[in-house]
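User: Can you predict the 3D structure for this chain?
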Amino acid sequence: MLCEPKLWLTVGSGSGAQFCAWRWPGVNPKGWVDFDTLIRHAQMAERGKFHLLFMPDFQSMRGDTATDPQQVLMEPMMTLASVARGT
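Assistant: Here is the predicted structure, written as structure tokens:
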């Protein structure tokens, strides 16, 4: 049985994979808890014909929320349900 390759997007932060991207001008530093940011990322993935959107689940906050980049820490199922309204 052959498995088709899937193109998927991991949504881990509101600013992308670059560790310090949340500090760049024009980036919402609170994007990791902003539904509109997550919806915008999901819509871009949809336009790019991605097959799925993955949201990791973490057990706790990481580092200092004032100075360190954060990951999506909201409960994934409820967050994805909210994101689904925009796709």
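The mean pLDDT is 75. The chain is about 25% helix and 5% strand.
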